[in-house]
């Protein structure tokens, strides 16, 4: 017998920590999704595809701005002292990934707006004279445009990695004690974004390219999961217990069915058949990938909070 | 700068919760929340059972994860003597510190900021003991400066066997339990 009876009963803490609800997984998912879209549109700009009329890099920055704003609104809803939200921007705390993230988000908006101005839509160009002038400036400087593409890819990578490091830096939650979470969330974000562009792209070349790329991302994601669990199983007992929460514990059904099965394996099979021209491209696989990415954030955030260093049973 | 620590004798503690009541009274801790609490840990198999009673609170760690992860600098180590405190007017209530504490010692005050034990810094400033230490009826709690060899806490830690909570988390707690 090893039993712990506690008189503590603090809200959000007992019987187990649940400080973050739906807002944080949604924010982390949208952050990763935007990171992926920044990297994809940055790549297309770098490759000079922005000159093509149907290139997705013309509308991805607008979608990214909307998605990121929704994510930040979810984050705002989660914050308990809402009138103090501006305090994030009065300091830079080098040891705090959340502080890094706040400043990265501030850089992401102008980067997306600049990418949007490289090839703005007709409405923006005609109604706002400055937009036309900026666009003309970019047309004369293709080298600068290439660098903007590179800048967006780098910033997108930083944003995607940050969403994972935010959790992995929190030492008290054994499930999150793995720096590979940064890579996992980056690849998952890239995969969701590739699936989304695959679904909505008007250009056939882009659809094919992103379906193939997404297959690659999904395979890499499976390998990262393998490394993630190897890391936890070769650590201490609390880390092994944390890994088992996902593998055969209370979160196993969601993890195996929605994250691995419907989120990775099934869409990987469908997309492999599609890129080999055995079946037609449909929206089914991309939708499954995107929902899988969302479920991944939910299951990691929820199970991570449930995991603890206190191994004894709490009897209330 | 002093290095304040608390030493709690688990052989004397009876779990009366006077420390909990004193803390709530001294610090106006809101209803339904606790800055300190009592844990009763039972280990063994009948008839070889052992129970340890511990008065627990923020461990005012030397390597505090809550301070490292705070995005605004609200969580900080006070100059008063390595006491971990929260600037209420800097805190955004992001809850990163709650998630980063292995002892789950923090909570969100109904006003929105992160709240926790302060070692009664308002009393320590005046040279007094924290409220919980002052009221303990079995005198099982001690408070003092680890850097002062003549302090009661230093003497106890050199003469008695002790432990800290979850040392494997690497936080170097400043609350010691005599066992």
SSE layout and pairing:
The complex is a heterodimer of chains A (316) and B (179).
Chain A: E1 2-6, H1 23-46, H2 60-78, H3 97-118, H4 122-127, H5 129-140, H6 142-168, H7 180-200, H8 204-233, H9 237-247, H10 252-275, H11 284-306, E2 313-315
Parallel strand pairs in A: 1-2
Helix pairs in contact in A: 1-2, 1-6, 1-7, 1-11, 2-3, 3-6, 6-7, 7-8, 7-11, 8-10, 9-10, 10-11
Chain B: E1 4-9, H1 18-27, E2 37-45, E3 48-56, H2 65-69, E4 75-78, E5 83-86, H3 96-100, E6 107-108, E7 114-115, H4 121-124, H5 131-135, E8 141-145, H6 152-159, E9 162-163, E10 175-178
Parallel strand pairs in B: 1-10
Antiparallel strand pairs in B: 1-8, 2-3, 4-5, 6-7, 9-10
Question: Can you put this structure into words, describing what you see?
Answer:
The complex is a heterodimer of chains A (316) and B (179). In chain A, 69% of the residues lie in helices and 3% in strands. Chain A has helices at residues 23-46, 60-78, 97-118, 122-127, 129-140, 142-168, 180-200, 204-233, 237-247, 252-275, 284-306, and strands at 2-6, 313-315. A two-stranded parallel ribbon of chain A has the order 1-2. Mean pLDDT of chain A is 92; it is low at 312-316. Chain B is of the alpha+beta class and 179 residues long. Chain B has helices at residues 18-27, 65-69, 96-100, 121-124, 131-135, 152-159; strands at 4-9, 37-45, 48-56, 75-78, 83-86, 107-108, 114-115, 141-145, 162-163, 175-178. In chain B, the strands form 4 sheets. Chain B has a 4-stranded mixed sheet. The radius of gyration of chain B is 16 Å and the shape is globular.
